[in-house]
Each structure stands twice: as structure tokens, then as C-alpha cells.
């Protein structure tokens, strides 16, 4: 058999060019620039998405809210299929524009997105809809978000501010980046601090009866304990607050949350809505259709547990609060609902407390539910009962009876 002898110099050159080509491909990037022109008089934002680079995505699918996104236009091929816009960028530059209706009113009459002549509160991941991207191998994006607002307005977003109206977008793990999380614009006031390494900001419209400094102080006491459980907590946190007619509750988002001004920092049952939403920000998990009780129960458990750890409530008050949740939870006939709230969430929180006790007893206090919560946060995405059991058994070193079929069984009428 005949083997051809390769020239060593030629072999080295071939390897070098191959590696150089791979590095170039891996480092290939294109720019995404999001521009939103805010029009308070019309209650809309005119949005433009601009792409630029030697290589661009082959296809982008925008998943629209047909009641809020309208008048889509692009010089590139654009196909509408129901609530989807299929955009096929051409060349080295491409752009797409549309209008976005900012106001969104719930059936209760309250708003979870609102614009007035003085301010606007909304989520950037509603303004910029979910986008599915088809990208060549090795291609990723650099993304920036710019706002055009009335001259006297300013903005707060959970992103690095490059200038007063321009922000650098981070979205780890995503090759096509887009803005996410709550934002507030207008004549606003804010308080901010670095807490446990987290750049934390509390912002609200001027003139509203908002306890910005109280809320920041509450974060100073409790956020470090949240970060101890979830060390991968986002490096930035924005808490947006407002009074009526905004929705009277709390809603989490990416690196951010909204909390109505009337919500107490600690409720009458001694849990905290603010800490509850912080846990949602930390975990980034969601239910799979029957597992929302895990998401909400974990958040409600820590809404009480973190207060105990920070000294916000005493051990006796902590036990009384758990007893209260256990009593309320008896009203819940089933944990396995699409949406967990009220008695179901109370019951779920007591399940988490029982899981914590079992793990501590099994490990002589060397492990706790913290390892389970941390594992869920690391895996993120949809959470399942099987996943919860696996992590709890790993922490305890044995099956956890609080998560057995018998313990979680539906209750009769």
C-alpha cells in the first residue's frame, strides 16, 4: 500500500488556515438595533428593527400580538401567517418597522401596560415580540436598544445604559438577542444602590405616593439572602412601582419586576410579595401545565423563609405564618392546576416547607431545599414534578415523602 508523504510546512499551513477559519466563523457577529419612538398623544410606539453585518439571519419569525402589533413593513420579503410575521433579510442591511399599542387593560379595568402624558410603564418583551431566528452556524448578535421620547423624559431598564436613551442588551445563551423585562419612561424618580453585588434600582412616576427609599432599604435587608440561595441572580435588578390604575399586584420579568404602590412590603400573613417576585426573577422557571404549584409554592415558601433568615420576622411568627398557610391550604382540592393561586399556592408553600424539613433531617442539617431551588434555577425553563423529586432526592440522599403520590394526592370534596 502506498502512502503519500505530506510536506510538514504545507501540513502546518493547512491546519493554521483551518483553525483561523473556524475562529473567524465562531466570532462572526451582526448588529441588531432596536429603536422605539414613544408617542404619548397616540399611545403608541413606532418600532424599527435594524440588522447590519456581513452575514445576517436567513429567516426571522416574529410571534405577534395581533391586538397590539400592526402596520408591519419591510423592504425585504415579509410574509404574514396569522399571528406570525416571517421576515427574510437580504444583503448586509435590513430593517423592519411596525406600530405597538402600549395600553393593555385587564378585565378588572386595571392596566399591566400603561402610557400617560407624563410616563409609560410596559415590558420590553411585549414591545419587541418573541423572535425565532434561523442563523448560520457560528453567527451571533450584538444588540442595542434606543428610545426616542419627549425631551423631558428619561428611562429606566434592567440593562447597561450606554447613553441617556441607549442601552446594551444582554441575553446570555441567545444568539439573537432582544430586550426583555420591565421598563419605565417619563418624568420618573428613582433610588439605586449596589446590593450583594447586584445593581438595584427602584423607579416610579414622579408625584405618585411611592416608598422608593423604603423599598430599597427592604432590598438591602433581604436581597443578600436571596442571592445566597441563588448565586446566579442577574447582575441588574429593576423594581418598577406605580399607583392606580395599574394592576394591584406584583409581576416578575427578566431582571425586573412590577409592584403596585399599595402592596405592603410584608403582608398580613407575614409573607412578602416583593420577595415572592424576586424568587421568580431568580429562578426563571415556569410550570408545564400541571406544575405551576411548584413555581408558585417555591416563591411563596421563600417569601416567608427569607424574612426569617434576615430577621424580618421571629421564629415564632414564622411558625405561626406556616400554620396559617397550612390552614388556608386545606381549601385546595388539587395542586395540579394550570394556574396556582390562593389556597393552592398556600398548600404548595407548606409542601416546600415539608421538603425542607425532610432534607435537613436526612442530612443532619448539611443540606436543605436551597440545593433543590438552586438546581431548578440552573436548569431553568419548564419545571416538572419528576425534576423536583430528582433534585430533592439528590439533596436528601433518599426519597422525600413530602413529594410522594400519597402526600400530593387530590383531596375529596
Automatic annotation (TrEMBL):
Keyword Signal (UniProt): yes
Keyword vocabulary terms for this entry: Signal
Chain residue ranges for the region called Disordered: 394-413
Signal peptide, first to last residue: 1-26
Annotated InterPro entries: Peptidase_M4/M1_CTD_sf
Protein name per its UniProtKB record: Peptidase MA-like domain-containing protein
